[in-house]
Structures
1.
Amino acid sequence: MIPATFTLTETELAGRELSAERLYQMCRVLRDTGFVVIENAIAPELISRVKLEHDAALDNYMKSRGGLAGLKDKTFGINHVGFFPPILGAVAAEEIVANPFAVQIMQAAMGDIRCSFVHTNTACPGSGYQPIHRDTPTLFGINNAPTPMVHAVVNIPLIPFTLENGATEVWPGTHWIVDERDDDGSHLEERARFFPSQRTVLPIGAIVVRDLRMWHRGVPNPGTELRTMMAIVYQRAFVHEDPCNIPQSTWDAWSKDTRKIFRFNDVVPDVSHTQRAWY
Ligand SMILES: O=C(O)CCC(=O)C(=O)O
C-alpha cells in the first residue's frame, strides 16, 4: 500500500463526510506529497458498472479509429489511449464525477471548484513507457515560486492497479519543483533519475486526488486486460478551461451540489451530447 493512503471509517462512509481532523490530514498529505489516496471511497459494484459501460464506449471509439493500429503514433506513449466517455449512466454517477470525499478535499484545498472534463486513461496490453510529464504547466508560466494548487485530477481505477498491470508511476513532492520551464519535458527525465518514485498500486474502490503538476508517467501493461483509470479534472473556479457539455438527463439527475461544480458546462439534449476526442 502506498504511504499516502487513508481508509474511510464506517462513520465517514455512512455520513459521506470526513471529520475536520481527517480532512486536515488528507489535505496536508496532498499538499506535502502531491497526491492522496482513499482506498475505499466507492462501492466496487458501481465500479463494475462503470467499467462495463466505459469499455463498451471505448471499444466503439477504438473501432471507429481503426483500433490500436489506427491510433499508432497518435497516442501519448505506445498503446496508451486517452478517451472521453459519454457522461451518461454509471460514468455520470455523482459518486464518480463529484465524489463527496474527493470534493471535500478539493474544496478545502482550492476553494470553489469547477470540472472541465471527464476523461479516462487506458494502458492497453503492450503499452510502453510514457515520457515523464506534468498534466499542466505552472500557473501563468510562473517558474520561480510555487503557487498553491490550482488544478487537481481525480483518478479512479476500473481494475485493481498492480505492479504487473501498469500502475501509474508518480514522483512525490515534484509538484513543488517549478524552477525551470519544462515545456519539452526533457529535464524531467534527467532529474527524475535522482528522485524516488512510487507506483500507484490501488484496489477497486480507491480514489486518488493528485495535484496536476506532479511528475508522473504511464508504464507498460504486459498483461492481457485493459488497465483503465478515470481521470476527472477540476480547477479553481476562476480558471477557465473549455468545459465538456452535459446531457440533460444527467444534469436532471444531479444534486444542487454537483450542478454547482458543473455550472460552467453547457447542458445539451442527450442526443446532442458530444464528448471531445484527441483524434
Ligand atoms: O495511464 C496512466 O497511468 C497515466 C496516463 C497519463 O499520465 C497521461 O496520459 O497523461
Note: The chain has one domain: 5-9+33-272.
2.
Amino acid sequence: MATFGGRWTREKLEILERYLKAYARVMKNQPFHTIYIDAFAGTGTWQPNSGYLPEDYQDYKELLKGSAALALDIRDRAFDRLVFVEQDKDRSAELRALAAEHPKRHVDVIAEDANQVLPRLCQRMTPLDRAVVFLDPYATQVAWATVEAIAKTQKIDCWILFPLMAITRMMPRASAPDPSLEPRLNRVFGGSEHWKEIYHEKRQLSYFDKGPEFERDPGSKLIAASYRLRLESVFLRVAPTRRTFENSMNSSIFELFFAASNPVGSDTAIEIADHILRNW
Ligand SMILES: C[S@@+](CC[C@H](N)C(=O)[O-])C[C@H]1O[C@@H](n2cnc3c(N)ncnc32)[C@H](O)[C@@H]1O
C-alpha cells in the first residue's frame, strides 16, 4: 500500500478513470488490441496521509484504489493487456498480488526503471496496438526521451503529471539554477534551451563585474507553458485545458497534461480529455 497525497490525488485518479471509461466505450467495436501502460504504477492502492483538509479527514483510514486497480476495473471493453511498471521491489510485489486476483487478465508487472522499459515497449507495438500511458511520478523521474518515444509511436494517448513544484524549486527566481541541477533539468526538458529560455538577463547591474546574471518572472506559469510547448513539438495534439493541482497551502505542485499521438484518433481523444478537464 502506498501512502501519499490527499484531495488532488483523488482528483487525478478520477480524471484518469473517467478517461479510461470513455476510451473503453470508443474502442468497443474497434479491431484494436488495447493496452494500458502504468509507468509509475505504485501498489494498486493508496491511503491519503498528508495535506488533507478538514472535509478530507473522513478519508484518513480509507484504502482507495490506485491507478493500476482502476485500470483493471474498466469493464465495458476491458484492456486486452495491462503493463504495470514499478521500480520498487516491494511495490511491484504488491502489484503481482493484485494481478493474481485477476487470473484471466493479461497483466505484466515489470520491476524496472520506466525510462528503460517504455522506449522498449513503444518500439514493440504492432500496427493494431493502441495504448493509454499514465506517467505519474513523485517528482522529476520522467525523462524527455521517454515522452518522445511515446509520441513517436503515433498509437498512444498519454496523461503526464508534470512536477511543477519540484522543477520550480530547481529554478530560482533571482539567479540561474545551480550547475549541479542542470543535468536533471536537461533530462526533464530534453535540452537546456527549453528551461534557459525562461530566464532573462538581469536588468539591474551588479556592483561587481561578474558577467551576465539571470533571473526569471515569478511563479510557475512560464515553466508549465514551456513544458506544454515541448509536448506540442512531439505530439499531434495536447489538450488545451489546464489542470493544476495545488497543495493545502495553495501552491502549485503538479500540472496534468494530456497528449495524443494517433493521426486518426487524436481529435476524439483530445475532445474527451478536454471535456473531462474543463468540467472538473
Ligand atoms: C505517485 S506514485 C504512483 C501512484 C500510482 N500511479 C497510483 O495512482 O496508485 C509513483 C511511483 O513511481 C515509482 N517510481 C519512481 N521512480 C520510478 C522509475 N524510474 N521507474 C518506475 N517506477 C518508479 C515509485 O516507487 C512510486 O511507487
Note: Residues 7-27 form the longest helix (21 residues).
3.
Amino acid sequence: METFIPIQQVKKEHVLSNNTSANTIDSSSHLSTLERTFIWWAIKLRIFYFTCITLKHPKKIWSTYKVMLNLRSNVWGGNLKKIYKISGRYYFNQYTPGWPSNAYDTLIKSELRRHASPMTVAEKLSFVFLAITRKCPMRCEHCFEWNNLNQKEAFTKEDLLKVIDLYQKEGVLQFHFSGGEPMVRIKDLLQLIQFASKKSECWVLTSGFNVNDSTAAQLKEAGCKGMVVSIDHYIPELHNLFRGHPDSFEQATTAVKAARKAGLVVSISVCATKQFLDGNHLLPYMNFAKALGVQFVQVLEPRDIGHYEGREVLLEKRHIEKLEGVFTLVNHTPAFKDHPTLLYHGYHQRKVGCFSGSRSVYVDSAGDVHACPFCHTKSYNIISFLKAGTRQLPKKENYCPRFGKIA
Ligand code: SF4
C-alpha cells in the first residue's frame, strides 16, 4: 500500500516555518548573465578544440561536434544555460565533473572518441556509485538496497580502497559514495575520499543522517566536491513518513545547509511517486529547493525493486508527461532562471537511451555490480575478484535493460 496522508491534515505552520528558515539562505553560486555567457562560450570552444586535436579529420570533427551538441540538447530538452560556480569550478550537471579540471577534460575526450567511432572504440566507465555500507537508520518506502540492509558489512575499508583503485585504473572520473547510509561510516568515508579525490571527483549520497557543520567541513577538507541529499517531500511529515524516520526531514535540511556552508555542490533528490505527481507537488518542491539554495534537483522515478518489489509503482503516461512538462519549464523558461537545474533521467532515457552501464555502474553493498541502483543486472561480484587477487576488472556487460544504451 502506498503511504498516504491527506495534505489538509498536515500542519500548515510546520511547512511555513520550514520555508521561512530556508529563505534565509542566499544563492551566491548563481552567475551574472555576462559571466554565464562567457563561461558557456569558453566551454564550447574547449570542446571544439578537443574535437579538433582528438579527431583531426575535418569531416569527422564537424559531424562529431554536432552529435555532441545534439546529445546535450536531447538530455536537457534544449540548450540548457544554467551553470553554477562553487569553490572556483563551474558545474552544470552533478554527473559531469566541474570545469576547469582534468576530470572534465578527460570526460570530453572520452565522449568524443566514443561518438566518433561508436562501433570500435573501447568503452570506459566515467563514474561509479559505490555503496560502502549496509547500515542505515532509515526505512525508506522505495529503498533499492532493502534486501541488503543492516547485515554484516561485506566490504572492509581495505576492500573499498582496492575497489577505488581498480576503477581508477579503468579511468573512472567520479565516485558517488552511497549505502545504506554512508555517513554511518564517516571515519572510513573520509579516508576513502582522501584516497579517491587525488584522481577522481567525489560525491556523497546521504539521507542527511550525521551531516552537520563539522562533518560537512571534514568531507570538504578530505576532498569531497558534492553532496546529494534525499528529500522526498517539502512537507516534513510526508517526507518523514516516506523515510520511516521521525527526524529525517530535520536531518536532511540541516545537511543541505551544512553542505552549502562547507562549500560543496548540493543536490536534493526526490522519488516522484504517482501520489506526489497526482498531487502536483513538483513545482512547489522546486520552489522549496530554490529557497534551500541548492544547485540541482534530481527526480527519480519509482522502480519495482527492493522495498517496492511486487508493487505497482511504475509511473503512467500522465505522470511522465507531467514530469517532462515541469522539466522543460524549469530548465528553459526565464521565469525559472533562478531555480535549481532539474535532472530527470527518464526524459533522455526514453528519447535517446540510458548512460548507465556504458558510462557508470553501481556497486551495491554486497559487492554485486549492476548497471545502476535501480536496474539490478548483476554481472559480477567485485568482492570475489578482490579475494582472487584480480588486478583487472572484467569487460562490462551491464547495459540498461529498460532503455538501451547511448552510443
Ligand atoms: S533508500 Fe537509502 S536511506 Fe533509505 S533505507 Fe535505503 S539505504 Fe537507507
Note: Confidence is low (pLDDT under 50) at residues 1-26.
4.
Amino acid sequence: MVGEVAVVSGASYGIGRHISKQLAAKGWHVALLARGLAQLTQVQEEITQAGGVALALQCDITDRNAVRACKQRIEDDLGTPTVLINNAAYVAPLHKFAEGNPEEWEKMISVNVWGTLNLTREILPSMLEKKRGKIIFMSSKAGVVPTPYLAVHSGTKHMVEGLVGALIQEIAGSGVSVSLVRPGGVATPGYTHAVESGDGGSVPDWIPGNFDECIKPETVAEAVLFIVEQMEHADISEINVTANTKIKE
Ligand SMILES: NC(=O)c1ccc[n+]([C@@H]2O[C@H](COP(=O)([O-])OP(=O)(O)OC[C@H]3O[C@@H](n4cnc5c(N)ncnc54)[C@H](OP(=O)(O)O)[C@@H]3O)[C@@H](O)[C@H]2O)c1
C-alpha cells in the first residue's frame, strides 16, 4: 500500500487531521481536502516534515465543480485514489427542532449529504475501473439512533447510512468496498461548536457533557486506519466508537 493514494475530506482539523497524519505515517500519499487553506497547509507541512507525502487541496465539497477539479488534481499529481475517507461534516449547535434555523439545516444537509455524494460520485468510478478501493464513511451514533436536539443532523447521517447500505449491495464483488465508522462524542472543534455552544442542558444521553469526557480524535483515526490496513484480508464493514462507559454512582 506504500505510495498508494488516499483522499481525506475535512483534513484540516478535528478527526480528519489525525486520519491524514496516521495514513501518511503508514506510507499513503494523502490528498487533504477542506476549505481552509492555511490549516490544510499546516497539516501538509507536519506530514512532510515527518517524511510523508501529502497534497493540500482547498475544496468546498458542496461545490460539484470544485470537487471535479479537485479529483483531476489528485489524478494528475498523485494518481488514482485507492482509499476515500468521507469525513467532513458540519453540525449546528444543539437546538430544539421547533426553534431551529433553516439556514443552519441547509448547511448541514449541504456538507453532510451533498458533500459526501459529490466526492463519492467523483471517485468511486475510477476505483471500480481499477477493481480496487475502500471508501469509509464517517457516520455517527446519531446516524442509527434518532437523536433529539440533533434532529436534522441525525437525519443527514441516516441518509449516509442508507447510501452505504445500498452501495454495499450495488458494488459487491467489484473489488471496491465501503465501511462505516460511527463515533460518539469526540474532542474536536466540531464537538465544541455543536455541544458547548448549544442549548444548555439538552445534551442527549449518549453524548459526553464536556470535552474531557470525549473520545480522543486519535482513537477514531486509529479505527479508520485499522479498516484500511485490513482491506487486503478482510472487509470490516463498520466500527462503533463511543466513550468508555463509566460506573454511574
Ligand atoms: N466530534 C464528534 O463528537 C463526532 C461525533 C460523531 C460523529 N462525528 C463525525 O466525525 C466527522 C469529523 O468530525 P469532527 O468533529 O472532526 O469535525 P470538525 O472538527 O468540525 O472538522 C470538520 C472538518 O470538515 C471540514 N469541512 C467542513 N465543511 C466543509 C466543506 N464544505 N468542504 C470541505 N471541508 C469541509 C472542516 O474544514 P474547513 O472548515 O476548513 O472546511 C474540518 O476539516 C464528521 O463526519 C462528524 O459528523 C463527530
Note: The chain has a mean pLDDT of 95.
